[in-house]
Design brief:
- There is one protein chain.
- By secondary structure, this protein is an alpha/beta fold.
- The protein contains 7 helices and 10 strands.
- Strands 6-7-8-3-9-10 form a 6-stranded mixed beta sheet, with helices on both faces.
- Strand 7, helix 6 and strand 8 form a beta-alpha-beta unit.
- The radius of gyration is 17 Å and the shape is globular.
- About 40% of the residues are buried.
Length: about 220
């Protein structure tokens, strides 16, 4: 599903990624660890097509991202990828239900099907009955569960999670990691977890470490 070959990225004189190779298959859940500044978030941005690599190839579902224009990349992200971030990035003025339904609206899913999926996902993440709550009325762990439901709502083929438990206590983090893993597995998607936490990485099928020599088994 996802293949990186010789991916390099620099900012000015500072080389962030030097020849990164990665293969990720459907149904696989992989964690990438590394020190702060190792380039983990940069790698995620490249995979998402948010910025181009300086060299190398990134192919998603047999499409070379460098060959796609901005509109095509935006459509690909909207339809085929889901994102979970450390800072949640839920919309504060939308209810829980509307936050989760947003990607379905953008992908023009029929209202009845959208309502069914939202209800199913909110039940799966333990937020049934909180549909009308606003993010300010939720705990950090609950807010991240909204973000997970939103990331999975449109049934993406690839879920990218960037330090999703960085702002949570250990109990909330463990729950969020389980829900994220279960959701990716249930939908048959591929998952890529960026983390500095060994406990978080232990939930993955395979753990890689990003360093000066690229991605190596941890």
């Amino acid at each position: 599903m996802l293949a990186l070959r010789g991916v390099r990225k620099s900012y000015g004189a500072r080389q962030v990624l030097a020849g990164v190779d990665l293969d990720l298959s459907a149904g696989e859940y992989v964690a990438i660890m590394g020190e702060s500044g190792a380039g983990k978030s940069t790698l995620l941005n490249l995979i998402a097509g948010l910025e181009p690599p300086d060299a190398g190839s990134i192919r998603f579902e047999e499409r070379e991202l460098a060959a796609l224009d901005d509109d095509a990349l935006s459509l690909l992200r909207r339809a085929r990828m889901g994102f979970v971030f450390q800072a949640f990035h839920v919309l504060p003025y939308l209810s829980v239900e509307r936050n989760v339904a947003l990607p379905l609206l953008l992908n023009r899913v029929a209202p009845a099907e959208s309502a069914r999926r939202v209800a199913e996902l909110l039940a799966a993440v333990g937020l049934a009955g909180r549909e009308e709550s606003l993010p300010r009325e939720l705990s950090g762990g609950e807010t991240q569960r909204v973000a997970i439901a939103r990331a999975l709502a449109h049934r993406p083929q690839l879920v990218l999670a960037d330090e999703p438990t960085g702002n949570l206590d250990s109990a909330a983090a463990a729950l969020v990691l389980r829900l994220l893993r279960d959701g990716v597995e249930r939908q048959g998607a591929a998952g890529l977890l960026i983390t500095h936490s060994a406990a978080a990485a232990a939930t993955a099928d395979r753990v890689l470490r990003l360093g000066p020599d690229g991605l190596l088994p941890a």
